[in-house]
Amino acid sequence: MMDWKSLEDQLKALGVQVGKEKKINSPRKQKHPIEKVVDGRFCEVIYGEVFCHEEFYPADYVHGIRALWPSEPLETLCQWADAQPLSLSDLQNVIFLDTETSGLAGGTGTYAFEVGLGRFTDEGFKLAQFFMRHPGEEPALLAGLTAFMDGMQAVVTYNGKSFDIPLLNTRYTLLGMSTPFTGVDHFDLLPLARRLWKIRLESRTLGNVENEILGVTRGEEEVPGYLIPELYFEFLRTQDARPMAGIFYHNAIDILSLAGLFSHMAFLLYDPHSDKISHAEDIVSLARFFESMGDFNQADQLYQKALGLDLLEDLYWDTVQRYAYLLKRQEDWSAALALWEEAAEHHALYAFEELAKYYEHRVKEIANAYEWTTTAIGILTEKPMPAYEYQFWRERFDHRLQRLERRLNHVDPGI
User: Fold this and answer.
1) What is the domain extent for residue 303?
2) Confidence at residue 103, expressed as pLDDT on a 0 to 100 scale
3) Are residues 82 and 206 in the same domain?
């Protein structure tokens, strides 16, 4: 008869566990709820409760090099945004907003699982971050956002016109809720950042602008934006909120940088001649900005200042061309002529055309116009350029030359 006890001992010696003695050591991972990871509270709203983390910054708080609270008038900033006038006392009616979303492409399948909001108060700057632990809390999150927005006159975002606000409006609509953004002015700082720093900065992402312009360096807690959707879906699967702490940090810095940039842009547009603006490229950008706004006096002064600085060659000649056209628009012919003649010495074909136009149409000196045109054709035949560009200028100068020759021979048919 087989000795089962002996067989069991042999199997154990081989590392085989038998029947009921086998133990499974795979307990479920311990959950780390958001309230144990991030300081905050659950706010009761009409649709239930939503987790909210709040921070307060004193009125003199400085983010990088810039105080959050603007000290310069906001008139030009409001004109640029086509917004109702805001005085410094109206700043408590401005919301700074940034979302963290389930995807970066937008669309009806994308939702905001965290919305960061900032506003000025009598005590300083208040930051609130609403977070939903699962998609079922979305109505509560949106209700919390609506409550925070109550009475607001304007919202400030970074690419919000293209992404954040349309996304939130879509979510409000899908849930049958009213959006709080109706009738609220919108300052989307991304287009303005592109205008002000396109020349100097290769990238105008919020992270790069805050670093290069405000001097802000994010800490080790920072989570790259492209990882955020993936981390949130992992949280939904595991309910381990520890990685969410980095997302809260990322969102908080975004909000502070929005306020800092709003303050810094107000300063630049109010005092574009400040000695604190040390980059020549930024002065060129400001000149272009004021020209586009129709403030030709400011643009004129800034172009003059820029041309006296150490600009890269391509930027210098581009600025000469832009400034000359501005002077032409203002009919400051002597100053425009000086710039065109300087550019013509550099073989800029547009300058020859402008000089020919001036002498033909403005002062009726046909011989001078003829000389500038023939000189341009001579340069054109020697100057290396793409075929399409050569054809473009050749047709323009040939047409002008034929007309000038007729006028010199007194047979102008009135063309």
Assistant:
1) 272-344
2) 85
3) yes
